[in-house]
Specification:
single chain; alpha/beta; seven-stranded mixed sheet; 19% strand; Methyltransferase; transferase; SAM-dependent_MTases_sf; Methyltransf_12
Length: 262
């Protein structure tokens, strides 16, 4: 199968892009989980559901691995962009976009029909995150994997403080939803414990927790773009720190990989 990493800007002939610095950790964990699922099931092609998958940032690379991907998203514009991106990548026959959301998930997809479910950047915006996770779990086959990505509380606090907005940083630190004020565009943020708790309460076994964008959002872009080798070194640093629990508390995003019992 073709290597899907170019979709993340990771061409071997060039330095990593800013986008790849933000997605590489999640992609590597997800790809490993899909490979393990292939080995466990003996199927060459998996059924993957991407809730809130938008224009296909993950769905298209997953399809480039040979898997069938269904993307559920409420935005018609995003689904149109998904269709175009899948066609350009040569995987249009493997990618299906349907309009919907995680709350009404089973109005548009089947229960228990998927080997893996992606729920990235969704729980921040739903009224009931626990219900959202339960729905994603109900979409999984026994032994299937859930890739859960949510906004991290600590990363937002640190970012506001480093920008000189100390009152907003303190507000986010004490707010039940991790918001720094009325102008905060993110309705809800999580700690690693909260995200893993949602997965475990839904009956999943948590296999790994990773911090995402620990440094990438804090390092000045001019440094990454102009210093020789800086982007590659930063990518390696992100990967090295991602699994260390000490850094989960300051990550911009948190990634949880969990499995449904067989």
């Amino acid at each position: 199968m073709p290597d899907p990493s170019p979709a993340f800007g990771r061409e071997a002939s060039s330095r990593p892009s800013r986008a790849s610095l933000r997605t590489a950790v999640v992609w590597d964990v997800l790809k490993d989980a899909l490979d393990r699922r292939v080995g466990t099931t003996g199927k060459g092609s998996l059924d993957v559901l991407d809730t809130g998958g938008g224009s296909g940032n993950f769905a298209v690379p997953v399809a480039r691995l040979g898997h069938r991907v269904t993307v559920v998203d409420p935005s018609p514009n995003a689904l149109f962009a998904l269709e175009r991106r899948a066609a350009e990548a040569g995987v249009a026959e493997l990618v299906t976009g349907v309009q919907g959301d995680v709350r009404g998930l089973f109005d548009v997809v089947e229960r228990g029909a998927y080997d893996a479910v992606l729920c990235h950047g969704v729980l921040e915006y739903v009224d009931d995150p626990a219900e959202g996770v339960r729905n994603t779990v109900a979409a999984l086959r026994p032994g299937g994997a859930l890739s859960l990505l949510g906004a991290g509380l600590g990363g937002a606090v640190l970012a506001r403080a480093l920008a000189g907005h100390f009152t907003e940083a303190r507000t986010a630190l004490g707010d039940p939803d991790g918001r720094w004020g009325d102008g905060d565009p993110v309705p809800r943020r999580f700690t690693a414990e909260q995200l893993t708790g949602l997965a475990e309460e839904a009956g999943l076994s948590v296999g790994a927790v990773h911090g995402v964008r620990i440094f990438a959002d804090l390092v000045p872009g001019v440094l990454v773009d102009t210093e020789p080798g800086a982007a590659e070194a930063l990518l390696k640093l992100e990967a090295a720190a991602a699994e260390l629990s000490a850094f989960h508390a300051v990550a911009t995003q948190l990634h949880v990989l969990a499995e449904k019992p067989v």
